[in-house]
Predict the 3D structure of the following.
Amino acid sequence: MIKAVILSAGSGSRMKSDIPKQYLEIKGKPIIAYTIEAFENSNVDSIILVCAREYFDLINYIVEKYHYKKVECVVEGGKERYNSVFNALDKVDGMDKVLIHDGARPLVKAEYINNMIERLKVHKACILGMPVKDTIKVVSPVSLSENKEKEEYIIDNTPDRKYLYIAQTPQGFDGALLKESYNRMILDINAGKDVNITDDAMVVEGYSSEKVVVLESDYTNIKVTTRDDLEYVDKVVEKNV
């Protein structure tokens, strides 16, 4: 089976909203609803939603209101993103293919989801991504003097941007590979090791020998983090209505 895990457990503190960003509305419809709809209209077989327990009733209401048929269950999220994914993997069989997606990326297109599903017949790990547009600098902090209000940085190096990609979601994996990689990472965490993980590809990169393939999507597939992002999504949705 092809299972999609949609993560909706984040607090969205940078949005400075009373409710998590994924439940804010665009054109009268919650952001998370647009996200679920993309997977509902794709070739995935089932959808696992992950959210904070206090929002179970709200997300179930959204599923019922918009008549989403592929939602299999709602799973409680964890403290960190990787905790939420790990919780959801209990619902994934080793024979499944699994796509992990940020609930706050409402503009993902079903065509890219379907392309990833097809590529998972060839590869065991792949992500959506796009080339960076700007020059990227790798920096180090400069020690602050007493008259400095903000930390300053110096450039260590400038990587060739033709080899730099913005990582997006969904990120797709062979179920057995992802579960084994996560289990190994959790063992390290439980052993007290410092693990800095910001996406699922990093887990596979760090805890398996499998290479992760990048599939290009488009630049509209942004993660809503700030009010500016919210305004951008509003404009794209209005254009596509």
